[in-house]
Fold this sequence. Notes:
The strands form three sheets. Strands 3, 4, 5, 6, 10, 11 and 12 form a seven-stranded mixed β-sheet that branches. A four-stranded antiparallel β-sheet has the order 1-2-14-13. It has helices spanning 21-33, 96-102, 108-126, 145-155, 161-167, 225-230, 237-247, 257-260, 263-274, 278-283; strands at 3-7, 13-18, 43-53, 58-64, 74-75, 78-80, 91-92, 131-133, 170-173, 178-184, 193-201, 219-224, 294-298, 301-307. Residues 7-11 have low confidence and may be disordered. β1 (3-7) and β2 (13-18) form a beta hairpin. By secondary structure, the chain is an alpha+beta fold. The chain is globular. α2 (96-102) packs across α3 (108-126) and α3 packs across α4 (145-155). The two termini are 19 Å apart. The protein has ten helices and 14 strands.
Amino acid sequence: MSSSANTTARGSAERLFHVPQAHRKAALAWLDRGVGIHGSAPRHASSVVVVRDGDHGVEALMMFRPDRPSFGQLSFPGGLLEPSDDEPLIWSGPRPTEWANKLGSDDIGLARRAVVAAARRVFVETGLLFAGSEGDGIAEHVDGADWMLARQQLSDLDISFAGVLSNRVFAFRTELLRPLARWMTSDFVHQRVDLRYFAAVLPVGQRCSPLKTRARDSWLGWVDAATLLEHPHDTAVPALFADRNAQHGESGQEFNLGEVATPGVQTILGMIARANSAIAFLSARRDMTVQTPSLDVRNGDPVLVLNN
């Protein structure tokens, strides 16, 4: 396991997380300067945890992207908020004011952008679309060349999510998303993100596929959460980790989930693993208080500490 939990004398739970090699130099430099210095301002981002019922437990749709250190190489679909996420569109489900309340935010505009960005990024990276014609529910079979072109245009910011929906007179089905968690990157990391996670189940009739232009340098697939945590080598993830290290001349390094997944991703995987079903995971009430692991030294090594 890449994280551990201890109990302090006062009874509060303390979790320790591994500092990845990619961040270790920055962590040591931060400790040399003295903990407590304010880091860079984090950028707002959204991510969607799409789940389904698998043969052995609840599975999550995950991505392996070696070029995303702030989100972790192994992550859920997501990305940064963009100005175009403010554009008007046909809206279904909880209104932005309700979303602000669900997300624990006083900023209604930010809450709206976070929800739109979540749907935009999951569509770009997986092809799943939380939208459909008014009165007809969610769209089915959103694949094919025209949809792939729309995803590429969205990725390149040549069109907005509102524009994609407008071209097809689709409504954005915000009721398909649920607030899940909020994590902020620790101070010592150079590119920090304030990341709001949303949960969703796999839409009926839709199937996921990677964006064609990223298929060569990334992986998209379903992962059994419990198996990844308890028996990772029974999943595809360690092989992806080994291939990436071999490409960088670092072959032979033992797999550690903490090398490829952020504390937020690891914690959410634990939540999924404990769920009895995808619907149970989606329906549970969540605390949206921001979680920010702090940097500390234990037994001479830098670690990330989260107190609950």
